[in-house]
Specification:
By secondary structure, the chain is mainly α. About 70% of the residues lie in helices and about 0% in strands.
Length: about 80
């Protein structure tokens, strides 16, 4: 997953595959693994998307990227019943 321009659906698949490999980790830890695996260009992309969504200009890049992954997963998963 080293290319930039990852869709939300592709990101969700990557999270699901990573969760299969690491079933004991929580969502934030899974998101951190996905962000690390994605590489520096994707970290910048994910952080930028997250900051745009939040309407902010600055934040810690890695943390913002992880938050983006979590936001995508929770959004695409839909409301919990």
């Amino acid at each position: 997953m080293r290319r930039v321009g990852v869709t939300d659906e592709e990101l969700l698949v990557e999270v699901a595959l990573t969760r299969l490999d690491h079933p004991d980790l929580d969502l934030e830890e899974i998101a951190e693994l996905v962000v690390r695996k994605a590489g520096p260009d994707a970290v910048l992309e994910f952080a930028s998307r997250n900051l745009a969504e939040r309407g902010e200009l600055r934040a810690a890049m890695f943390a913002a990227a992880v938050e983006h992954v979590i936001r995508v997963v929770l959004t695409l998963r839909g409301p919990s019943d």
